[in-house]
Amino acid sequence: MEKFQPVAGNGLLDRRAFLRGGAALAAAVTGYARAEPLAEAPWSKEPGELVPAYGTPSKFEKAAVRTLSNPKGEPRTSHARTPHQLLQGTATPNGLHFTISHAGNADIDPAQHRLAIHGLVKRALVFTPETLSRYPLVSRFAFVECGGNSAPLFSPEPIQATVQAIHGLASCAEWTGVPLATLLEETGVDAKAKWVIAEGADSPHLSRSVPLEKILDDAMVALYQNSERVMPGQGYPMRLLLPGWEGNMNVKWLRRLELTEQPAMSYYESRTYAPILPSGKAYQFYFIQEVKSFITQPSVGFGMKGPGFYEISGIAYSGNGRITKVMVSADAGKTWAEAALQEPVMSKSFTRFRIPWQWNGGPAVLQSRAWDALGNVQPTRAEIVAQRGVASRVPPPTAFPSQHYNAITSWAIDANGSVRHVYA
Amino acid sequence: MEKFQPVAGNGLLDRRAFLRGGAALAAAVTGYARAEPLAEAPWSKEPGELVPAYGTPSKFEKAAVRTLSNPKGEPRTSHARTPHQLLQGTATPNGLHFTISHAGNADIDPAQHRLAIHGLVKRALVFTPETLSRYPLVSRFAFVECGGNSAPLFSPEPIQATVQAIHGLASCAEWTGVPLATLLEETGVDAKAKWVIAEGADSPHLSRSVPLEKILDDAMVALYQNSERVMPGQGYPMRLLLPGWEGNMNVKWLRRLELTEQPAMSYYESRTYAPILPSGKAYQFYFIQEVKSFITQPSVGFGMKGPGFYEISGIAYSGNGRITKVMVSADAGKTWAEAALQEPVMSKSFTRFRIPWQWNGGPAVLQSRAWDALGNVQPTRAEIVAQRGVASRVPPPTAFPSQHYNAITSWAIDANGSVRHVYA
Lengths: 424, 424
Description:
Two copies of one chain form a homodimer.
Chain A: E1 6-8, E2 12-13, E3 67-68, E4 78-81, E5 99-101, E6 115-119, E7 125-127, H1 129-133, E8 138-145, H2 163-167, E9 170-179, H3 180-187, E10 195-200, E11 207-211, H4 212-217, E12 220-225, E13 228-229, E14 239-241, E15 254-260, H5 267-272, E16 292-297, E17 308-317, E18 323-329, E19 337-338, E20 340-341, E21 351-359, E22 364-372, H6 381-388, E23 410-413, E24 419-422
């Protein structure tokens, strides 16, 4: 291992190690055999499967799906979580993008759907999906994250669950749509307007109030998601996209934008997404998803295959802009090493980080910590719990802190190779 | 229209027009109505559809699928083409990534699949998919294009077909895998090695010879495609990725890399992908997919909705590196205006270009022309036909030019609003 000197405790290697090649890895990775003669597998001896009109994953990848909180579609909220532990790269495939639907996925005929922009405008306008497609479009990569993602980490004891169960309510896609700045030039804006009430066409008519400043900054009406039309679970035929802001504000099945002087104080902003803090104040109108990261490989559910070389890999993002640095620790935060960031690093988008690791077979606690372009640093769990408290099992439910957990996640590697969720 | 002065003939507007907002567009785009009261659609009055484990497009988007050349899976090659006219952005969704399979999609059990690297190496090694996943991974966006994409443009008369039928054998994805430079450090390389024979585990055992220099430059064994495992039609559980090089060389279902002194002169490189030029020489071992662009919206199949504002949008790419400029003409190449390129512009990847256009309702011929970082410029059709000839209906079939058409495509807009493919 003389090529790869550890740069932090418990075996973390320099992030540039992989750029110099892997000659030292051969001894660490098992499973080799002589190459020849090559065996002829059954699929090499007969024609393959039909090429379909719309490709789907291999039947051997059935585990790489979203987990469902409400698989029978009972009359309550449905959550579908992204399997981050099985993914690599940055953009989430559309089939695996997380969904939260408060009454199922609205099944909208685009020929009948309308978007109204009205209220404090100079002239109210109604747009069809086809009319919107005539406007100049822009594309950008952006993550969307539920405000309640990672809520299990407010639990007083660490819940043993996969990264999908804990952090699966965040995904990233290339969105294409019409900038709202363009559409509001069409309607004109009354000088008194300060807020925009966005409302969905789903049966709960989910609505949220958005400051006009954000709408004029980088908001869009998204028509496409990773190049194809937005999926039903992401708001087909159109959703509001507010890059970096709380997921539910990115209103799906968007049918109305009403410009107003005051926020609507809608159900979803005054109750569901407004938990009570220990101080007795509501945690409300906190829009930005702050800087965050978590390790996806290895994580709970992985079985380590004995001591040797592993790559630690994960996702970092910030609603404030670009990720500038991710540090990784293998010794529960005593020492840290800088991870490699996969280029291109895009603002308000997932950034994949990776760092090589020589596991010595002993106990280890893996953590990641991210920094963003505004200089924000991901907090420790102790810091966020000190501000916002810990979930208890005592009612009322609105007194549980459950929103905007962005602190560090810790995975403990045991000597037997299993991975546990711990607080460290 | 005083805000938007044309910058080239027949109504092309400055590419920055959309950055200044769209107040001038209102008069040009029809379909408005008063906003209130909002109608309540059926889907706003009842619970929606079940949230599935793997999301799929809306049932109203059934046309957004690949077209199939061999839908019954007869014993011949199957082509599945990407519907570019219905897509926006840059990364092709996995379900819509083009596929060419010479005997269907091999249906491979990853637990039994092996990749051998052997021949002129210091030690032959065999890798399982799981072993490869232990290595340091890299991600990059890259297009893959069949050498025969756009072959209809060698026809003596313009074929009336959609952009999907003409240019649908090119797609783009974020690929994640192990750099081959890393794996060849593991095996060691004999000084005599100059070529690498890549072979698939599909029943035709498609094989191609790749210069070792490319393998050591930016080639990878790709395990993931847009974050999830590579699709069966793209080579599950692994494919060779040679960014910017001819599609079939990116060998799917990869099972063998043999280092040699000479190319193999395999069937696919000595016959299928080696057409005879007018000079009598074979057009062989021409690897790079040269700089290219085409307009996707509007294109054949679109019906223009009367005079007024439209956005012209398309895709540009080069196997040599980044796209540096795309020019668009609305008057068959007499005058040109520079299109906006969607950031980030990535090397050997699709780049989306867009330019605003005020259609006056008269005849127009739309063209795009791209430049790359090496200074290459997309040729005119006359230039490429002068070099390589035109397809005829006379045998032998190998005398048809059919490969590496990268010249300009022309769409004629007629006064009735229909779009035709023309040579101009």
